[in-house]
UniProtKB/TrEMBL annotation:
Subcellular location: Cell envelope; Cell membrane; Membrane
Keywords: ATP-binding, Cell membrane, Membrane, Metal-binding, Nucleotide-binding, Translocase, Transmembrane, Transmembrane helix
UniProt KW Translocase keyword: yes
Full-protein interval shown: 347 to 633 of 682
Protein name: P-type Zn(2+) transporter
Source species, domain of life: Bacteria
Family label: Belongs to the cation transport ATPase (P-type) (TC 3.A.3) family. Type IB subfamily.
Gene Ontology terms: cellular component: cell envelope; plasma membrane
MF annotations from Gene Ontology: ATP binding; ATP hydrolysis activity; cadmium ion transmembrane transporter activity; metal ion binding; P-type zinc transporter activity
The keyword Transmembrane helix appears for this protein: yes
């Protein structure tokens, strides 16, 4: 049987826009000592803007952007959306084949030509020679027919309340706060510095995020529970695997809401600490 006060806790949480899918998760929240965050769309706004276009071959900057926008036509990744916004002309081109490579980018055949748009790992995996660009922003490479033709510099910014959300967790005694991301190290570190997160695991593919989470959980040897907070884009398996998966309901995908144990309907990241506080208060009533 579930103690009555668990219902009280769940009710209190729901009045705060926090949906907890059962008393067992409320109980787990009481024992949390580690909070792991996804970066893009969770700690950051997930709204990128293209701030620079660099052409590397005979192609113009306009053409590099056009190729990228064409290849991203069917992608809903935050990076794809930013590229399509920047191009804002009508898409002309016949997409014969399209593939989204989670954690890498996209590959498309358009008008008989192969276009790759994505990160350093994508170029490496596809055997395309290139110089690695390092900036605190994200770099999106564009290759045509096996040749690098340019890259885009795109920027995302931390959510206004992310720093406060981290401070609130630390004031609750949560010492282990970790960021996981598929983005490259320099970008992750720059976001970490702004928010006060020093434990960072970057350049992870979706399945490696799950492995990292399992590593973190194994280190604790059953002592303390681990929360993962994500938006569901490329991290639904991590939400499902953690002791308590918390999804952002406002922007989160249906997959995230499905895979999560707790949904923050208002999309306010500060409510991760609120959920812990409500759970702890419930604990006091029960025992
Ligand atoms: P995060 O872990 O930061 O939330 P993702 O796992 O969604 O990010 O993506 C990791 C990386 O894969 C991105 O930083 C980007 O370099 C690349 N990537 C993923 N999808 C796309 C796409 N549609 N277009 C370009 N690059 C992409
Ligand atoms: Mg993400």
């Amino acid at each position: 049987s579930i103690p009555l006060s668990f219902f009280g806790g769940i009710g209190g949480a729901s009045r705060n826009g926090i949906l907890i899918k059962g008393g067992n998760f409320l109980e787990a929240l009481q024992k949390v000592d580690t909070v792991v965050f996804d970066k893009t769309g969770t700690l950051t706004k997930g709204i990128f803007s293209v701030t620079r276009i660099q052409a590397l071959s005979t192609k113009s900057e306009e053409e590099v952007l056009r190729l990228a926008a064409l290849a991203e036509m069917h992608s809903n990744h935050p990076i794809a959306l930013s590229i399509k916004r920047a191009y804002n002309a009508s898409h002309e081109g016949n997409v014969e084949h399209y593939e989204e490579l989670a954690g890498y980018g996209v590959k498309a055949h358009i008008d008989g030509q192969t276009i790759l748009v994505g990160n350093d790992k994508l170029l490496h995996e596809q055997g395309i020679a290139h110089e690695r660009i390092t900036t605190p922003q994200s770099v999106v490479y564009v290759a045509l027919e096996g040749e690098l033709v340019g890259y885009l510099i795109i920027e995302d910014t931390p959510k206004e309340e992310s720093k406060e959300a981290i401070l609130a967790l630390r004031s609750l005694g949560i010492n282990e706060i970790i960021m996981l991301t598929g983005d490259h190290k320099a970008t992750a570190q720059s976001v970490g510095e702004k928010l006060g997160i020093t434990q960072i695991e970057a350049e992870l593919l979706p399945h490696q995020k799950v492995e990292k989470l399992e590593e973190i959980m194994a280190r604790k040897q059953g002592k303390g529970k681990t929360v993962f907070v994500g938006d569901g884009i490329n991290d639904a398996p991590v939400l499902a695997r953690s002791d308590v998966g918390i999804a952002m309901g406002g922007v989160g995908s249906d997959a995230a809401i499905e895979a999560a144990d707790v949904v923050i309907m208002t999309d306010e990241i500060t409510k991760v600490a609120t959920a812990l506080k409500i759970a702890r208060k419930t604990h006091t009533i029960v025992w």
